[in-house]
Specification:
Shape: globular
Number of helices: 19
Strand content: 15-25%
Low-confidence stretches: none
Structural class: alpha/beta
Strand order of the largest sheet: 6-7-8-9-12-13-14-15
Distance between the termini: 42 Å
Mean pLDDT: 97
Number of strands: 17
């Protein structure tokens, strides 16, 4: 380490050793301070040498007069943010394609960066929901820190975002904004009335009749029996459509407006505000989408992107399930509405939807937001299946034993009984589970249980998973480049 610091003091990178890996793309300097990221065994550090305010502000262990070895702490991330603009996340607005690259383990971002480099899309590297963070026992701070250090490691200077994904509660919104997220995905599912879609016409009329008189008059006068002209189509709305949409989405719209006015409108920085109405069983009709968007416009809510609930199934980690022709028809309607109101369409649970990616690309004209997350976790398990079959077998067996608990959090429809038994699978074929839809979903939704499982206060899997992925860092990187690369290629981004 001392030799590396001596070289760094001279402005030279130096050479790694058997125990020390150098990330050469990280090498940089600022007013007399040279920085370099390295990994010693399984731990990454910043090496700092020289003098000046940057050097003084970094916390680390002094090594003689040669420099400091600085851990990748929250404090040191904030120091990097103050001195290197490219480590500060950005908002990208309504006219730039973006891809959410959720990283449940906090180690996938280097591969994500390489996968999207030189493509016409910007990465949202920090993207986790409160649910995901809770299930993995991580924090928003950790999510932002790991994404930022990955950007520094890769010397990536083309911009990245941070998304507080599927946020519901106001305390979480406030905390996310304080931490500097550049995107907020507001999950309105708690305010979307789930029993109205299947209600009879009379039931809808009876419930609507209970609303405030002025409110009823406003909605009926604004929407009932109206035809709204878009650039390439018309949206015709009848009276029962109005009533149903008000009952389903009225409270959700009020919450969207409240959140925007309370937390977003007065931000003194660029910000991407996304609305999610996809976490519901009710398919978003064109009339419903128009209603939500029009009410937001009337309240001067600036929406960057909106995620409707599409027909068919956008389940986790597998391809689209449903009638592709019907999906294309409805997608084109949603795209036209989004264009009319001037925001991007957002595709949630976008991982691995390869059969519909060309359709999405064509109709959105490659200006969209798409979210991926669990598919990178699955690629981590592919590494383990290939490099440590014994560990993979234990993980897989644990997932099968505990999947019912995970099903409380995710809507999926696999046939777990169709998964080939572990005892019938050779070590050399274990990675094929990552090509099987049923097994992919089993492993996808049990990530939280796997990563937090312990016995006698010791981790059952987590420590060994991280150790294996650290030892095979370059393999995991290549898997991600290939897999996420397939996403952006198929989307023609």
């Amino acid at each position: 380490m001392e030799t590396l610091l001596s070289n760094l003091k001279l402005g030279e990178i130096g050479e790694g050793t058997e125990n020390i890996k150098i990330y050469k793309r990280s090498f940089t300097h600022y007013q007399g301070t040279f920085l370099l990221m390295i990994k010693e065994s399984a731990n990454k550090f910043l090496l700092a040498s020289g003098e000046g305010p940057l050097y003084s502000e970094l916390n680390g262990q002094e090594i003689g007069d040669e420099g400091k070895v600085c851990p990748l702490t929250h404090h040191n991330r904030l120091v990097l943010n103050r001195y290197f603009d490219y480590t500060v996340p950005s908002a990208f607005g309504k006219n730039t394609a973006t891809i959410g690259l959720g990283d449940r383990l906090g180690i996938a971002s280097p591969g994500h960066i390489e996968a999207i480099k030189n493509r016409d899309v910007k990465p949202i590297l920090g993207q986790q929901s409160i649910r995901e963070l809770t299930l993995t026992k991580r924090t928003l701070e950790d999510m932002i820190d790991t994404a930022t250090f990955a950007v520094f490691q890769e010397g990536y200077k083309d911009g990245f975002g941070i998304d507080a994904d599927h946020i519901k509660k106001e305390e979480d919104i406030k905390r996310s904004l304080e931490l500097g997220v550049t995107m907020l995905t507001l999950d309105c599912s708690d305010y979307i009335q789930k029993d109205v879609e299947s209600a009879s016409k009379k039931q809808v009329q009876d419930e609507f009749a209970k609303l405030d008189v002025k409110l009823k008059k406003y909605y009926l006068n604004t929407y009932s029996n109206q035809v709204f002209s878009l650039k390439t189509r018309k949206i015709a709305v009848n009276e029962i459509d109005v009533m149903r949409n008000v009952l389903i989405y009225g409270k959700a719209v009020a919450y969207m407006i409240h959140v925007f006015n309370t937390y977003v409108r007065h931000l003194d920085r660029d910000f991407d505000f996304e609305i999610s109405i996809d976490e519901t069983e009710a398919i978003t009709s064109p009339e419903a989408h128009f209603f939500v968007a029009n009410e937001l416009r009337k309240s001067q809510v600036e929406v960057t992107s909106l995620a409707p609930r599409f027909c068919g199934e956008f389940q986790k980690g597998i391809d689209y399930i449903g009638d592709i022709d019907q999906f294309e028809k409805e997608l084109s309607e949603h795209v036209d509405i989004a264009k009319h109101f001037g925001y991007k369409l957002s595709i949630h649970s976008g991982s691995d939807k390869f059969s519909v990616f060309p359709i999405i690309s064509k109709h959105t004209e490659r200006i969209l937001h798409i979210k991926t997350a669990g598919t990178s976790w699955l690629e981590a398990l592919r590494v383990i299946a290939n490099k440590n079959p014994s560990l993979y077998r234990k993980i897989h067996a644990y997932a099968e034993k505990n999947v019912e608990q995970a099903l409380k959090y995710y809507h999926i429809t696999p046939n777990f009984e169709a998964i080939t038994p572990l005892e019938d699978t050779k070590d050399s074929m274990l990675s094929e589970y990552l090509n099987d839809d049923n097994a992919r979903q089993l492993l996808h939704i049990t990530y939280g249980l796997i990563l937090t499982a312990n016995r006698n206060e010791s981790s059952l899997f987590k420590d060994e998973i991280y150790s294996m992925l650290s030892e095979n860092e370059d393999v995991y990187r290549e898997y991600l480049i290939k897999h996420i690369g397939k996403h952006v290629e198929t989307l023609d981004l």
